[in-house]
Automatic annotation (TrEMBL), chain A:
Belongs to the TMA20 family. It comes from Penicillium chermesinum. GO terms for molecular function: RNA binding. The keyword Cytoplasm applies. One of its GO terms (cellular component) is cytoplasm. Residues 90-172 form the PUA domain. It is found in: Cytoplasm. Involved in translation. This is Translation machinery-associated protein 20. One of its GO terms (biological process) is formation of translation preinitiation complex. It comes from the Eukaryota. Keywords: Cytoplasm.
UniProtKB/TrEMBL annotation, chain B:
It holds the Pfam family DENR_N. This is Translation machinery-associated protein 22. GO terms for biological process: formation of translation preinitiation complex; translation reinitiation. Keywords: Coiled coil, Ribonucleoprotein, Ribosomal protein. Interacts with the 40S ribosomal subunit. PANTHER family: DENSITY-REGULATED PROTEIN, DENSITY-REGULATED PROTEIN HOMOLOG. It comes from the Eukaryota. Residues 139-168 are annotated as: Disordered.
Length: 181, 168
């Protein structure tokens, strides 16, 4: 999604009523952020919005990016936010061999998740297609990719082939390198 | 006042994360960034603890044993290629920097009024639009950025025009 560098663009303030709505939406989408919401997005802080290419909007407070939202999708937290509160979002894990592909912006493929180094949640905690997941890597602590799953985890297990996540926000992409000041 | 088990002001629960000063990734992922050598040196200086954890013999061996031999070879090859590419682009940048000049011109506008034109700053990683504002403040003048005609077509490289009225 953000393979290229993002040119600096204008920022504008968000209306406080809209800000409240966004906050609610974020909580609805990610109940995991509930305990931290006051810290992430204090009621007083003024949220700003930055327009990114491909009709994506990025919400920030001061110079910290919080989350971005594609035109037709749910809000997705910025990786820095994910690193700060890693427990808030369901995660899957890829094997070591897949890291270098992910970090160069390739689509996430199923074998990286089903191989011995990868990890998927068990059937009880299955993640549906269309949900946002954070992707960890084998032997690493931090999340390296976040995006919307294209295929449910159970289906990944049964099929074991094909693209699982088309485009996401990965470490070192344009959004990661974006300087806000 | 009764002493109640007050949770107190909520402790900040955010984890503090150190990002690499060279490639901006979390240090764990430096090895995939193409500037692994530099990152390692940086980490050794800045965060010795982390360095120990990531680059000690044990850690390296553990990483290697996790992959099959052929995959390892491929990954190594890929990494080498990436590193070479990064080094190359860096060298190119340095060369460009060394060769480029910042030109400061004084152009007469109206007898005793002059404009100072500065070009060539963009090579040094300065953002012209912001710089124009800063310079304007610093010298108490108007200041703006314009693209020179030659560069008009290429949008990323821009020339700068700082405009100052100087009398006398």
């Amino acid at each position: 999604m953000f393979k290229k560098d993002i040119p600096p663009s204008n920022r504008s303030k968000v209306k406080s009523s809209v800000q409240r709505g966004l906050r609610q939406k974020l909580l609805d989408t990610y109940p995991g952020y509930e305990p931290f919401i006051e810290e992430i997005m204090p009621k007083k802080a003024s949220l700003e919005v930055v327009k990114l290419p491909d009709r994506v909007t990025l919400y920030t407070i001061d110079t910290t990016p919080l989350f971005f939202q594609p035109m037709d999708g749910p809000p997705i937290p910025h990786l820095r936010l994910v690193h700060q509160y890693p427990s808030a979002i369901p995660t899957v894990q890829i094997d070591r061999g897949a890291i270098r592909f992910v970090l160069s912006g390739a689509a996430l493929m199923a074998p990286g998740l089903t191989s011995p180094g990868g990890r998927l949640p068990d059937a009880e905690h299955a993640i549906e297609a269309g949900q946002v997941v954070a992707v960890k890597a084998e032997g690493k602590e931090e999340v390296c990719l976040i995006g919307v799953l294209k295929v449910g985890t159970e289906e990944i297990k049964s099929k074991g082939k094909g693209v699982v996540m088309d485009e996401g926000h990965y470490l070192g992409d344009g959004l990661w390198r974006l300087q806000l000041d | 006042m009764a002493e109640v088990a007050d949770p107190g002001p909520a402790e900040p629960q955010a984890r503090h994360i150190v990002y690499c000063g060279v490639c901006t990734l979390p240090p764990e992922y430096c090895e995939f960034g193409g500037t692994a050598k530099k990152c390692e040196e940086w980490l050794k200086d800045a965060e010795p603890d982390q360095w120990n954890k990531l680059y000690s013999e044990d850690a390296l061996n553990a990483n290697l044993s996790a992959l099959s031999v052929s995959a390892q070879e491929r990954a190594a090859k890929d990494a080498a290629k990436k590193e070479a590419k990064a080094a190359q682009s860096e060298a190119r940048d340095a060369e460009k920097k060394a060769a480029s000049k910042v030109i400061i011109k004084r152009v007469e506008r109206n007898k005793r009024k002059h404009v100072t034109v500065i070009t060539g700053l963009e090579v040094f990683g300065l953002e012209n639009k912001k710089l124009a504002k800063e310079l304007g403040k610093k010298f108490a003048t108007g200041s703006s950025m314009t693209r020179s005609p030659a560069e008009q077509r290429k949008s990323p490289s821009r020339a700068m025009l700082a405009r100052m009225c100087v009398s006398g």
